[in-house]
Amino acid sequence: MSPRTFLIHGLIAGFVAGILAFGAAYVFGEPSIESAIALEEAAASGHAHGEGARAHGHGNAHDHDDARDGGHSHGDEGGVSRAQQSTAGLATATIVIGVALGGVVGLAAAFALGRLGRLSPAASTALVAVAGFVAFALATWAKYPPNPPATGSGDTIGARTAAYFGFQAVSVLLAVGAVVLGSRLARRGDGWLASVVPAVGWLVLVTAAGLALPAFDEIPGDFPATVLWSFRFSSLITQIVLWGTLTVVLSGLVRRTARAAAARRELIESVRA
Hints:
Layout lengths: L2 H54 L4 H10 L5 E2 L2 E2 H31 L8 H23 L13 H31 L3 H22 L12 H48 L1
Antiparallel strand pairs: 1-2
């Protein structure tokens, strides 16, 4: 099987995964986003209403409506309505991300083929995808869980972004090192060491990296915990659906292609015999 075959399979699997991830994000994530936006708008409206009341000595319905319209608006930002953001925009984002991830995982699976002991093409592909989920998505989610709208400080966005992607890069590089170490130990015939030592080593090193990087606790004290954890949980569910679908579809396509190639080889050998 050529890298091109893995790449095409990865793009197909990523497309399917992106569609299903959109469904998960819409069903599980959008309610918590709407709740967070409502809280932000209510806070902005209440603040503006209070300022108007202090300036004029009283408040009225007209002042409140003006304050609401002049506050943070998520219904039409840059000509894109909130409905478009939560449907077409969200679908586009998840599909693009899914296709991109599928291509990367497909190429990584092509590179790993034959280098992970006696694993079959489908099994080694599944292992690469699972390792990608743990290193790229799960570890980063655990260190820097996503926050709902209006809960982060604009002053630290640069530092938060650098720390997020820095930790993600370290986690992925350590995962690659763990896979390489596991493949070398597997060649020596010790399956237990090949599976346990790299996994434990990655966990220890990525934990140390997480402890060394800064933490950002910028959630307002009065922000509802249920909304926060609902948002974070829905984000994790979306990642699980995305990577799970990618793993199943990609390994399934690889398995079918490998079986077809094996059947062709057997047919050629039988004809020559």
